[in-house]
Write a structure and sequence with these properties.
It is a single chain. The chain has 148 residues and is of the alpha+beta class. 20% of the residues lie in helices and 17% in strands. The chain has three helices and four strands, in the order αββββαα. It has a four-stranded antiparallel β-sheet, with helices on one face. The chain is globular, with a radius of gyration of 15 Å.
Length: 148
């Protein structure tokens, strides 16, 4: 079976990100707490490289009032390669996030392994799932108001 061309897949994801026809790729406990879409200020809408996202921290934790902002770069070889996600603000203390705010999907816990069948929402859900880690909650609670 042939893979869906990159831009067709991204346009389908965009439709889901904006809720076209009631569709969403963000489900379960993350529904309504992860938002993403094209960064229309940075993208010319032909390459679909630049996206933005916001993730609301886990409810019933100290991070529940945090709104994490991030940028996403979708490479030309997507979906074979994972999108690159970078936190902007606030900072987060997570093993998968380096000092520049860049997320290493291979360091997400529980183990996350990108595959071409996945989409942007999958990596965002995995990042939000990592916010539930007790160590992340403990070490990130005082980072409100900080940025990369």
């Amino acid at each position: 079976m042939a893979a869906m061309p990159r831009n067709f897949k991204l346009l389908e994801e965009y439709d889901c990100a904006i809720g076209k026809e009631g569709k969403s790729l963000v489900t379960g406990k993350h529904m309504g707490l992860i938002h993403y879409g094209l960064d229309e200020e940075r993208d010319d809408n032909t390459n679909l490289h630049h996206w933005r996202a916001s993730i609301i921290g886990p409810q019933d934790t100290n991070l529940g009032e945090f709104m994490y902002e991030m940028v996403i770069f979708v490479p030309d070889n997507y979906p074979k390669a994972a999108p690159k996600v970078k936190f902007i603000q606030p900072k987060v203390s997570m093993g998968a996030v380096n000092s520049k705010g860049e997320v290493d999907p291979n360091k997400l816990d529980p183990k996350f392994r990108w595959s071409p069948e996945m989409n942007i929402a999958d990596i965002l859900r995995a990042i939000r799932e990592n916010l539930y880690n007790n160590s992340v909650i403990k070490h990130s609670q005082n980072l409100q108001g900080t940025s990369y």
